[in-house]
Amino acid sequence: MVRRWAYVHRGTAHVASRGKVVPKARQNRATSNLSIIMPLTLRPLQPTDAQALVALLPDLGYEATADQVVQRLDALRAWPDQEAFVAEIDGTVVGLCHVQGIRMLISDGYAEIQALVVAAGRQGEGLGRKLVAHACAWAFARGYGRVRLRSNVAREEAHAFYEHLGFEKAKASYAFELRRP
Rounded to two decimals, what is the model's pTM? Predict the structure, then answer.
């Protein structure tokens, strides 16, 4: 599914400032006069987007080559209940979201946002909110009653963002892993 928005950056009604919405009455005149309409497209991730993702992944603390991104996308698409999509403005990929459905025997399961990143220069413009909303719509359309995500304990700004979107801390746990020898 491809969604398109007419996106107002530093628009006439409100401006995002450090994660807070500032009414127009409190904006300075130089900022409030900027009303740039940018077409935002949310669309499935394509192999041709690999190089753009290479530039975004370090913001999540990961690195990969374009070839690795393409291989991982192929593997991801081979499994059911997975989607990765990008936010694009003027032909430039500015965000990524990967959502995965988790079917379980012991419960109804859930969908989990595995990755969410917005280019550093575009943060605070509402793109992350739109990516999360798109992931949630994808999950609910597939019958999942809840959406989860995980965030490193040190990422306090991300926690505040997720709570602002309505997510609640559900539980704390440790991640254990075993690596192939």
Answer: 0.75
